[in-house]
Model the fold of this input.
Amino acid sequence: MTAVLRAQGLGKRYRRRWALSDCALDIPAGRVVGLVGPNGAGKTTLLSLAAGLLTPTSGTIEVCGGRPADGRAQLAKVGFVAQDTPTYARLTVAEHLRLGARLNPGWDPRLARDRIRRIGLRPDQRAGSLSGGQRAQLALTLAIAKRPRLLILDEPVAGLDPLARQDFLGDLAEAAAGGEVSVVHSSHLVSDLEQVCDYLVVLVASRVRVAGDVGALLAEHHLLTAPRIDPAALPPGLEVVSVRHTDSRTTVLVRGGSVPPDPAWTARPADLEDLVLGYMSMPTVEVHR
Ligand code: ATP
Done:
């Protein structure tokens, strides 16, 4: 199986602080990957390493079979939109498209033109006079029209209105379904991830806490709730991912095959939000209301 992104022992340190540590990933091609984690977890650092904007302090990273940003051919394989969706303020929308065409061998002029028309940008408008969301749309169009094999997006929809967001997620899902492109994108919006992602990576405190196919992960996680559950008394074979105590009940996310029925708790299959919240929280969390 070809990996679109492979990291081994990958780490990045800023002065004395590790922004990413000992990261191991093997993401198959053709996936839409959701990268989630708390603020400061290391998501932008990982994506910037994958885009070749940062160099690792330790370990290795490969994207589409090569070193990130290693020459023209490698650059052409990857589209990247950074969190601040950079554009050239003095250039018009049309000039951005011309620049895209000149710099990218696989440029798809029709796709670029159609998308610009659909999102309602005027070709003669300077990027500096666009709203934040419109600038994000322009940057996303440039990245998609380059027809990359891997699209790396750092919180791509954060600045988009709900309708534009739906539209963009639809574009992503369509491109990925056609097998044309793999996508790795970070987001704090679980509902968006639910809609398009088939592969999940949860990063917490500079480390990968879980990574894998969404369907497979969902199949092996359950949420147990009861007035009080002692995680130590759970049947063997169940790995406790997180425990959340409120004043009135305990919620435990467990990983393992099936959960035997027990009058002591209610069990249900976990959904994506349970997974994200469970892996993002510390092993035991007390919540008092
Ligand atoms: P967010 O969800 O808030 O965007 P993130 O998961 O993308 O966060 P990163 O931006 O990768 O997190 O930051 C990871 C850690 O590295 C943070 O503690 C941050 O303060 C630190 N960091 C990031 N960039 C730098 C830098 N240029 N110099 C020093 N520290 C940095």
Observations:
- The radius of gyration is 21 Å.
- The pocket of adenosine-5'-triphosphate is lined by residues 14, 19, 37, 39-45 (CB under 6 Å).
